[in-house]
């Protein structure tokens, strides 16, 4: 490949900035110019490797791996055990991780929980939706939830129970902050259905369509067909796809641009209401659509 004229000129004139024995300052212009030294340091000054490592350690704790040892964390962050231990000790002192005195292994601490709730509470949508979700739960008598999409999962950002709801426990121990795979939940199917096609393909490429309930959709073609129906009707149904006996109906929440930013569902268990799916949708669709329309309007969405 031919060399450029500027390259040839630079090689021919080392005294004009190319390192040489006779011109040591040319190796580093900042040696004689403090402002150049500051400019050269600017890119790295905007990034903290120590902070990155600390956050990588925190991110290593997941729903499937809630308790980890120093060796596990060292592999995750790519450091030796001694260095990793210093980072972990700092996080523990600040309350972001806690150690089991018997096993010496670590789990996330209460400060992380505080941050999580602070993040959720800072979302405009949770403040706007709270009253409407509670009203829907009170009207129907069933548990009402709202979730957002985070990669191939949904994250619960609100969950409301009616004062007259059944005491039957769903058995999934869901709460604000809980995560579930999107493909086998009604809210997840709503959020996937309105994804950009390229984004949807990428998310499904990362998703293991494992069987979670007796009627889980495990074939990608069938899931794509189900998502097309959601886009057509504006309603998603989960019929024992997540867990035996659990059904739910969900609808989208839109922002002022019309983008789907969240989903709301009403969950029912067969032991409480053992009706056909059609009967469940017929009974709950109207109040559900009304609620998501009210929330969307508060977020600035206007129907044509």
Distance between the termini: 58 Å
- How much of the sequence lies in strands comes to 15-25%
CATH architecture of the largest domain: 2-Layer Sandwich
Largest sheet data: 6 strands, antiparallel
Mean pLDDT over the residues: 83
| CATH T-level topology of the largest domain | Beta-Lactamase
Number-wise, the strands total: 8
Spatial strand order of the main sheet: 5-4-3-8-7-6
Per CATH, the class of the largest domain reads Alpha Beta
State the helical fraction. 40-55%
With helices defined by DSSP (H or I, 4 residues minimum), what is the helix count? 11
Counting structural domains, the number is 3
Superfamily (CATH H level) name of the largest domain: GAF domain
Low-confidence parts: 1-43, 167-171
- Using only C-alpha atoms, the radius of gyration works out to 27 Å
What is the ordering of alpha helices and beta strands? HHHHHEEHHEEEHHHEEEH
The shape is elongated
What structural class is derived from the secondary structure elements?
Answer: alpha+beta
Structural description of this entry:
The chain is an alpha+beta fold. The chain has 3 domains: 5-45, no CATH class; 49-109, Orthogonal Bundle (Arc Repressor Mutant, subunit A), CATH 1.10.10.10; 123-298, GAF domain (Beta-Lactamase, 2-Layer Sandwich), CATH 3.30.450. Helix content is 44%, strand content 16%. It has 11 helices and 8 strands. The strands form 2 sheets. A 6-stranded antiparallel sheet has the order 5-4-3-8-7-6, sandwiched between helices. A two-stranded antiparallel sheet has the order 1-2. Helix 3 (49-59) packs across helix 4 (70-77) and helix 7 (124-140) packs antiparallel against helix 11 (277-298). The longest helix has 22 residues, at 277-298. The chain is elongated.
């Amino acid at each position: 490949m031919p060399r450029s004229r500027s390259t040839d000129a630079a090689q021919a004139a080392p005294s004009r900035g190319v390192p040489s024995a006779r011109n040591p300052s040319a190796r580093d212009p900042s040696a004689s110019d403090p402002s150049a030294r500051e400019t050269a340091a600017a890119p790295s000054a905007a990034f903290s490797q120590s902070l990155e490592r600390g956050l990588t350690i925190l991110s290593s704790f997941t729903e499937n791996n809630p308790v980890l040892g120093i060796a596990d964390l060292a592999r995750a962050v790519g450091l030796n055990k001694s260095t990793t231990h210093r980072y972990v000790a700092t996080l523990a002192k600040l309350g972001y991780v806690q150690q089991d005195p018997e096993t010496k292994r670590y789990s996330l601490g209460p400060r992380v929980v505080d941050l999580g709730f602070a993040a959720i509470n800072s979302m405009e949508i949770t403040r706007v939706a709270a009253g409407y979700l509670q009203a829907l739960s009170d009207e129907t008598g069933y548990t009402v939830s709202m979730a957002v999409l985070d990669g191939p999962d949904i994250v619960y950002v609100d969950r409301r129970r009616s004062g007259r709801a059944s005491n039957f426990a769903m058995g999934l121990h869901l709460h604000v902050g809980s995560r579930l795979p999107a493909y086998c939940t009604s809210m997840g199917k709503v959020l996937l259905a309105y994804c950009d096609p390229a984004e949807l393909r990428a998310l499904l490429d990362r998703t293991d369509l494992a069987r979670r309930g007796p009627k889980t959709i495990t074939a990608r073609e069938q899931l794509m067909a189900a998502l097309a129906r959601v886009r057509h009707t504006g309603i998603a149904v989960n019929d024992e796809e997540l867990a035996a006996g659990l059904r739910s109906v969900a609808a989208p929440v839109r922002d002022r641009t019309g983008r789907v930013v969240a989903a709301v569902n009403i969950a029912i268990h067969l032991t409480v209401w053992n009706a056909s799916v059609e009967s469940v949708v017929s009974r709950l669709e109207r109040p559900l659509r009304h609620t998501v329309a009210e929330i969307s309007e508060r977020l600035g969405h206007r129907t044509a």
